[in-house]
């Protein structure tokens, strides 16, 4: 869903809103990306702990270089990433994507080598590119405006043989070319409430009881819990505990979860 930001705050009537979540929803309708812009982890604070260089929202067609894992390992992999806020919020790299990419690089054999991997809401493609470099057969997906930057990033990193770009809008029919994956990746995809049922529907259509889903998200507001209320109808999850960076990103309200389908009765 691409929601135009063309409403005016002048239309907003606070008297009809009874609680904080309703207020959040009304403000989201006016400006769906306001929570992302309020993300202090990419603001003017101390970034010495961050892998992804600070990307101002006005960023236009720039290249950044990233290494994973971030602990200076001799086996670190390197990614060149085109970032451009023009196509939408997905055109820059987000903190949950950074966390997930880093975890994959630490646990490459467990999650990537030889596996069929599908990333949802890939944006620049960062997480999927890392999975491709680590030996996965990867599909990176997003809505149409992001496809050019994803193609550019696949080329920049010479990953054409292992990473395929496909259009996949949550809630819509799955493209035929996309295989049923062993592993689904999703980073920073919980931020706009109208898309929550769409994302759950897509995950539900893709995942069998054997599918692993690594789901990294940054809690920004109370309404995020609606996503998990929907998800828990068919899925269980648990926190990933073997990530040495966990304490650091927990302080930024980021969680990395393993989600899996509940066994059918
Ligand atoms: C905050 S960005 C995160 C991008 C990337 N995963 C990262 O961590 O850098 C959210 C992504 O979800 C995508 N998205 C939002 N709604 C979508 C939908 N209905 N179908 C498919 N992708 C969607 C956006 O285009 C964007 O790329």
Give an overview of the whole structure.
Helix 3 runs parallel beside helix 5 (126-133). The protein has a 7-stranded mixed β-sheet with strand order 5-4-3-6-7-9-8, with helices on both faces. It has one domain: 3-Layer(aba) Sandwich (Rossmann fold), CATH 3.40.50. The chain has 265 residues and is of the alpha/beta class. The protein starts with 19 loop residues before the first helix and ends with a strand. 27% of the residues lie in helices and 21% in strands. S-adenosylmethionine is lined by residues 1, 36, 88-90, 93-94, 96-97, 121-123, 126, 142-143, 146, 169-170, 187-189, 191, 195, 198.
CATH architecture: 3-Layer(aba) Sandwich
Give the mean pLDDT.
85
Order of helices and strands: HHEEHHEHEHEEHEHEHE
Overall 3D form: globular
> Which CATH first-tier class would you pick?
Alpha Beta
Question: Could you please say which CATH topology applies here?
Answer: Rossmann fold
- Strand element count: 9
Radius of gyration: 18 Å
Fraction of residues in helix: 25-40%
Question: What fraction of residues sit in β-strands?
Answer: 15-25%
In terms of per-residue confidence, which ranges show pLDDT below 50 for 5 or more consecutive residues?
A: 1-17, 40-51
Number of domains: 1
Biggest sheet details: 7 strands, mixed
What count of helical segments does DSSP give?
9
> How would you write the strand order of the largest sheet?
5-4-3-6-7-9-8
Any ligands, ions or cofactors bound here, and which?
S-adenosylmethionine
Class based on secondary structure composition and strand pairing: alpha/beta
InterPro entries: EFM6, Methyltransf_16, SAM-dependent_MTases_sf
Keywords: Cytoplasm, Methyltransferase, S-adenosyl-L-methionine, Transferase
Binding site for S-adenosyl-L-methionine: 94, 121-123, 142, 170, 187
GO molecular function, one term: protein-lysine N-methyltransferase activity
